[in-house]
Amino acid sequence: MEAQRVTILKTEYVTLDVKRFVLTRPKGFRFMPGQGCMVSIDMEGLREEKRAFTFTNLPSARTLELIVKIYPGHKGVTQQMSLMRKGDALLLHEVFGTITYKGPGFFFAGGAGITPFLAIFRQLHKEGRLKGSTLVYSNKAASDVIMDEELTAMLGRNYLKTFTRQGVIGFRDRRIDKDTLITLVQDFDQHFYLCGPPEFVGDLQRMLVELGASPESLVFEA
After folding, report:
1. Count of H-run helices and E-run strands, the chain
2. Homologous superfamily of the 4-96 domain (CATH)
3. 28: left (phi over 0), alpha (psi -120 to 50) or beta
4. Which of 31, 47, 114, 194 has its CA 20 to 30 A from that of 134?
5. Whole-prediction pTM value?
6. In Å, what is the CA distance from 114 to each residue of 8, 24, 83, 90?
7. What does DSSP say about strands 134-139 and 159-163: parallel, antiparallel, or unpaired?
8. Which residue has the higher pLDDT, 33 or 176?
9. CATH 3.40.50.80 occupies which residues in the chain?
10. Chain center to CA of 178
11. Domain 105-219 belongs to what topology?
12. Is the pLDDT at 169 greater than 60, yes or no?
């Protein structure tokens, strides 16, 4: 796929280290909810430095939206993106992604791993098809939760938060383990959507299969 140049229309921080970008949308540009794209910065010396980001907007939207975790200590692409403003440009390369909606089930997200699910939830919410799906969202602390108000509005009681480093009254304050899965899931004959750091996804894959989930029911980025 030939790279397509897009212009930044708006930027804002949604947490202390997560930045939202609203971009122009090339004519005919298509993706499915949950899919992403290889992105680079349209600047000398950075055009070949591609990173994977997931679109969070509805497929029918006139603009594109990326929600990007910034890693300033890495001195890389996201650090440079933290400095970008309205009018700057990015390059979109090949679309990719195996996280697509297969049916109701449990969604497990770790940190910025929520991004593929945002487009899926927004599409299902628009169509009135979110019933039967539950989100379990794990973060280090409450301040790290991305798009908390919108997720609460869409999912209500089916939105569960866990925190690994900060006890928050009314929420679980431990990592997701087998006991947590048994308590929350109960029925393992359904779809499970997983996205987050490799260790987070790997541990969930192993535990879910050990508890009776079919490997074919697990949806994650291969």
Report:
1. 5, 11
2. Translation factors (2.40.30.10)
3. left
4. 31
5. 0.93
6. 22, 23, 23, 22
7. parallel
8. 33
9. 105-219
10. 23
11. Rossmann fold (3.40.50)
12. no
